[in-house]
Here is the input.
Amino acid sequence: MSLLVMKFGGTSVADLARIENAAQKVKAEVENGHNVIVIVSAMSGKTNELVGWVSETSPFYDAREYDAVVSSGENVTAGLMALRLQEMDVPARSWQGWQVPVKTTSAHSSARIEDILPQNINAKFAEGMKVAVVAGFQGISPEGRITTLGRGGSDTTAVAFAAAFGAERCDIYTDVDGVYTTDPRVSEKARKLDKIAFEEMLELASLGAKVLQTRSVELAMRYKVKLRVLSSFEEQTDTAGTLVCDEEEIMENRPVSGIAFSRDEAKMTLVSVLDTPGVAAAIFGPLSEAGINVDMIIQNISEEDAGKNITDMTFSCPTDQVARAKKALDAAQASGALVFDELIVDENVAKVSAVGIGMRSQSGVAAKMFKTLSDEGINIKVIATSEIKISVLIDRKYMELAVQALHDAFELERA
Ligand code: ASP
Ligand code: MG
Here is the structure.
């Protein structure tokens, strides 16, 4: 019996009518001869509401109780989906994470899935159940407490189930009809991609494209889960959505497949740190202990300062981590572990990135990107590259312009 995983995000189960719409899609796959594991999110807005209730009740909440509360939205949609399917004469049963069980670490509010035991669900399939509806985003810790997987975690639940059960495919139903060359709200020329390679999707997801949780893409890549992103509001066809797949399945690689951006970046510069071994460790050690997601890093000495043994260190991090980063660096200075003259924070920057596996084999992509930005009069503040990505930090007010100009320059509107 072939098995599919179908995941429905918050907007796809936002009310009873939408749950019915989603259930129709599940029923259609059952009629196509599949057993189905359905992963559901909470109704849209529900998780935010629950998080709000927790913070209002207890600002420095106990993370175990946060998880107890915040995981509950998915329990509601799982039960309702199972009931709706039963009403349509589809044998269905709901499962909370602990019932499966989905075993996770005990890192409450950002737990990782360690293992999913398929026996219980498979036993029910053997008895004739056609659909297992599983509450996404949750699991159980070794201590027996409910855990959650971090915001957007139902995507990861879905991919993990697809891997654990050897599903034929993992379909992620959402409110957009696939992965785009960039955000259509920023460039009207954005085009839906039929296919995208795991690695590109991973870069796009971690660079701020919000279609899939980054960890779900990592998992899909590792276990080679065939992942499809599609809209629950459109008719299903064979070419619907975007297939996230191995790069071998993509015939022709363009140098750039997509332009990603993130508005909420900050640039921090430590002025006049010593240019001696151990200084970078003295800066980034405390930052990492404080949980700061440092992204781009530059260290450079002007010729003028050469020989003086001092340098500046610049890095970027999300704006909402600036206060914590400052605190960590000030503490390092106070303890004598780190010496610097000044800490300059620029919170008015945005990151724009060009991503494409074709970059590996084609040269000139960076030059073209920089020329395009310069033609628009946009100053580049920081540059970082990987094998398949070039990111720049620019003034936030030019972000849209930069995205549009790059989208044009790399002709992404053309199929
Ligand atoms: N409901 C959770 C959230 O809003 C998990 C998810 O939908 O993926 O983050
Ligand atoms: Mg989501």
In short: The chain has two domains: 3-175, 260-409. The first helix runs from residue 16 to 31. The CA atoms of residues 354 and 390 lie 5 Å apart. The first strand starts at residue 3 and ends at 8.
